[in-house]
Amino acid sequence: MTKTNLTIELLQTEANKFATVESSHDEPSLFGVTDGKAVGTYLEHKFQKYLHENYVYIEGSSAKGIDFPELGVDLKVTSIKQPQSSCPFKYAKQKIYGLGYALLVFVYEKIDKNKQKTGRLNIHHTVFVEKHRTADFQTTSGLRKIIENNGNQDDIIAFFEERLLPVDEIQAQELAEEILQKPPELGYLTISNALQWRLQYSRVIQEAGNIEGINKVY
After folding, report:
1. CA distances from 149 to 90, 144, 154, 171, 180 (A)
2. Could you tell me if 92 and 167 are in contact, meaning their C-beta atoms sit under 8 angstroms apart?
3. How far is the C-alpha of 48 from the C-alpha of 67, rounded, in Å?
4. pLDDT tens per residue, range 50-107
5. How many Å apart are CA 109 and CA 80, to the nearest integer?
6. For labelling, which of 4, 83, 105, 147 has a CA lying 20 to 30 Å from the CA of 17?
7. Would strands 196-200 and 102-113 be described as parallel, antiparallel, or unpaired?
8. What is the mean pLDDT of the chain?
């Protein structure tokens, strides 16, 4: 059987099919597992295996970077209880202009069946966030308001200081100049400062299907 080249459209179509099937699958190896990382690894590996059956693509890894490097897409799996995950911190600009890649997010609820001794991952949401929507909501909306109010470089630098954006003085000046020339698009993630960015997904779940660039896959 000839395999098809994976595209972003096909990735979303297959994510929908996979979420449907997985939501009715009882898995003995998940019974009693409470570690979110272990659940995420299980689902990621299973989805990659599912895709490899019919599609040709290069699989990335957390060590190599994103999960679908050719497509510019990273895969995230998170619990409905607290829909968030971490991602590598590259530079402060990611909070303003986006992560540099799109996200495919599976949001699950884990249910254990004691009698059968199996676990089930009920996929509540699958959301595709296009690259230009992966910046921080409060940061981008704040900067856009400053520009609309005829703000200048000093106003933007003061805003960086208020938001504790991890930049030094020179970086702040260069970034402020760039923002005045190229105002950022509105992002829809909540990105917390840390050694790794912490991405929170409540807003993209809420807005999926309503905002251009945030697709409700499942």
Report:
1. 30, 9, 13, 23, 12
2. yes
3. 9
4. 999 999 999 997 666 899 999 999 999 999 999 999 998 899 999 999 999 999 999 9
5. 6
6. 83
7. unpaired
8. 95
The single-letter DSSP state of residue 178 is: H
Q: Which 3 state secondary structure label does DSSP give 10?
A: helix
Residue-wise pLDDT for 23-59, tens only, equals 999 999 999 999 999 999 999 999 999 999 999 999 9
Quick one: how far is CA 200 from the chain centroid? Answer: 8
Q: Which of 130, 124, 131, 94 minimizes the C-alpha distance to 107?
A: 124
pLDDT at 11 over 90: yes
DSSP for 93-139 reads THHHH--SSEEEEEEEEEEEETTTTEEEEEEEEEEEE-GGG-SBHHH
User: Residues, the chain, total?
Assistant: 218
Domains in the chain (CATH in brackets) are: 4-83+100-134+195-216 (3.40.210), 137-181 (no CATH)
Measure Cα distances from 21 to 24, 47, 149, 159 in Å.
Answer: 6, 11, 50, 46
What is the token pair recorded at 30? 């998940």
